[in-house]
Amino acid sequence: MTVFQDLSDYRYISDNARPGTKNVGWLGGGEEFERATPTDALLRALWEYCKVSVAQTRGIHDCELCSEPSSYNAEREGERLLLGAAEIRVFSDGPSIFAAPTLIYHYVSVHHYRAPDQFIEALLVAPGPPARVYFEKLEALGLKWNATSPGAGPRFKFGGR
Ligand SMILES: [Zn+2]
């Protein structure tokens, strides 16, 4: 996975770059990051955002922080999401838009990645999905989105590695 510093300008997929878009949560295996135990409110909000895939890519990224890649499918309260194949957008009150990989839910819930305060604040305060105004913002910016796939169930391991 491509690593970007938190709050640097988003340029990853130029078609999806809009003025004021900042990177959040683009973690890689060798990079240090701040950790904190997430609140349930934070996880709940992230999950709702991750249900909406923005800038879907063809490939799927594994988590480089896990010793075994296991993050394709995340589960929360009986729901499943396929993570690592798209991005989310979070709108702040101000001019900033935050762009994070959907793997951010896994990074926060499993690896206790501590996202920047301004991102968390926007996440918890601004209306996100499924609020209509959220989709209107995506549309106004010309950002394509689709519902995140629930995935194909748990990954099976074949044989002994
Ligand atoms: Zn991981």
Largest sheet data: 3 strands, mixed
Oligomer: single chain
Flag low-confidence runs: 156-161
In sequence order, what are the helices and strands, one letter per element? EHEEEEEHHHE
* Rg of Cα set: 15 Å
Gap between N and C termini: 23 Å
User: Could you say which overall geometry the principal axes of the C-alpha atoms support?
Assistant: globular
Tally the beta strands: 7
Features:
two-stranded antiparallel sheet; three-stranded mixed beta sheet; 161 residues; globular; 4 helices; alpha+beta; disordered C terminus; binds zinc ion; 22% helix
What layout of secondary structure does this protein have?
Layout: E1 21-23, H1 40-50, E2 52-54, E3 73-76, E4 79-82, E5 87-91, E6 97-101, H2 104-109, H3 117-125, H4 132-140, E7 145-147
Parallel strand pairs: 1-6
Antiparallel strand pairs: 2-7, 3-4, 5-6
Bound molecules: zinc ion (ZN).
Mind explaining what this structure looks like?
The protein is α+β, with helices and mostly antiparallel strands and 161 residues long. It is 22% helix and 17% strand. It contains four helices and seven strands, in the order E-H-E-E-E-E-E-H-H-H-E. The protein has helices at 40-50, 104-109, 117-125, 132-140, and strands at residues 21-23, 52-54, 73-76, 79-82, 87-91, 97-101, 145-147. The strands form three sheets. The protein has a three-stranded mixed β-sheet with strand order 1-6-5. It is globular and about 40 Å long. The protein binds zinc ion.
Quick overview:
The protein is of the alpha+beta class.
